[in-house]
Amino acid sequence: MNTFNTVPLDQFSHEDRYKFLMASVLPRPVALVTTISEGGVLNAAPFSCYTVLSVTPPIFGVSVGLKADGSEKDTLRNLRARGECVLHIPNVAMARQVNLAGQDCEAHISEIALAGWHVVDAVKVGAPRIVEAPIQFECVLRDIVEYGDRRSALCVVEAVHTHAADGVVQGHRVDHALLDALGRIGGGAYCSARDAFSAPAAAEPFQR
């Protein structure tokens, strides 16, 4: 039987608490979010603290922290200004570019151009869609709620139009092998959903 030790979260620095929490909640799905600045710069940034908040209507929650200098990230600022984005599900083939887009860039630099992605127009929002991402949700902003001493912002967005690459979706079913969704571990470490297995009922033998 396991023995347990107390983890003194309240005694950690903000940076160490962040590292512990992000290294504990695993694996984390990655949302690649595109927005447009007030000046027209195309922005793309990955976020691994996000989830589905509601099914009907389809609503996502994306947690956006502050930059190291305490200023707002471009995604948050652009969402406040324009109220829309496209939330993409990136695949494993995009991992290097996703990591590149996650670096801290000046506001006038487009991560889309930096990563070499191709974009097409969305149908219902102004932000562009990244062609390489196999699933794309066009979203409008519903709310922004701030939490914590360092003001992490929970951005609540509703999907108003959805796109999927050929073969990835049949009806409502997603082919996870074709989707090959990218997951985040921490730092430069990522994972995939390829190593999936079924967990049988308790009365059945477990096999992997």
- Mean pLDDT across all residues, rounded? 92
Structural class, judged by helices and strands?
alpha+beta
Count of the domains:
1
Number of DSSP strand runs: 14
Provide the CATH architecture: Roll
Strand content: 35-45%
Give a quick account of the main beta sheet: strands, pairing sense, barrel closure.
7 strands, antiparallel
Helix-residue proportion: 10-25%
Number of helices: 5
Order of secondary-structure elements: HEEEEEHEHHEEEEEEHEE
Keywords:
Pnp Oxidase, Chain A, 5 helices, 14 strands, alpha+beta, 7-stranded antiparallel beta sheet, 3-stranded antiparallel beta sheet, 17% helix, 208 residues
Task: Walk me through this protein's architecture.
- It is a single chain.
- With 208 residues, the protein is an alpha+beta fold.
- The protein has one domain (24-192): Electron Transport, Fmn-binding Protein, Chain A (Pnp Oxidase, Chain A, Roll).
- It contains 5 helices and 14 strands.
- The strands form 4 sheets. A 7-stranded antiparallel β-sheet has the order 3-2-6-9-10-5-4. It has a 3-stranded antiparallel β-sheet with strand order 1-13-14.
- The longest helix has 11 residues, at 14-24.
- It is globular, with a radius of gyration of 18 Å.
- The two termini are 23 Å apart.
- The mean pLDDT is 92.
